[in-house]
Sequence to fold (288 residues):
Amino acid sequence: MNKIIQMGCAFLVLTISAFGQTKIEQAKTSFEQRKYDRVKNILASIDKEDPAFADAQYYLGRVAYEEKEYEEAADLFNEAIDTNDKVADYHHWLGNAYRNRALVSNPLTGAMLAPKIRKAWEKAATLDDKNIDARISLVGYYTEAPGFMGGSIDKAKDIANQLIKLSPAIGHREMGEIFMLEKNYEKALLLFEESLKENPEGYVSIYQVGKASALSGQRLERGEECLKKYLTHTPQTGEPSHAGANMRLAQIKEKMGNKVEAKRLYEIALRSDGRLKEAKEGLERVSK
Fold:
């Protein structure tokens, strides 16, 4: 009987709480709980005349994005922007949707989407001078895209410097990744260590120390230590995989002259992800 009463009270509290929320607040709560069908049901009755329409389209876009319906997500984010183009998150997630659509499309479609990705993220950063996520996205774009599509190492460094002011741990990590792309591993390692001073549990920076060590042959013991620590961590969305960490650890062991251990680690990496080209090449080297 007590359990029934407790359950009834809990339901009553939740019901009262829901009545006290706007539809957007209810949708946001349901989205955070990953109850995507409930988000759709809550927002279905909001039309273009409703002041909440832009936010409704944004959350419906977020649901479509989570369901990997990237074209639909982009359409919904665009509807939100058409209603209110002053919200940085609308533009940032539009860029994210275009990026993920490009990743699963043919090269021609990807090339056509590239300027849309860049412009969406740039707009988000312009609208919100404290938007860290949009700036991280821009660093990635500027470092990966060719020059004729707006790629620029100098622009990437400018954004990384902005990030250093907003979040030193993230900014130093992003700057370190830029220097690693330039093969300036000594500078990259210093920046990753600077990031870890700010946030000792920054696992992406921990991984990057290991990666820079594996690629350069510098500070091998420290690289090994960091990769072993990373392998105790469960990677979150967008973080390096354990397969990648095992491959980098194998490269370190290979540079240390321990072919037996390197071979074992390359094999572990390839069992997890058979697409790792560097792991395949490494396994071939240490198997001779």
About this structure: The two ends are 72 Å apart (CA to CA). Residues 19-126 form a domain with the Serine Threonine Protein Phosphatase 5, Tetratricopeptide repeat fold (CATH 1.25.40.10). The chain has a mean pLDDT of 94.
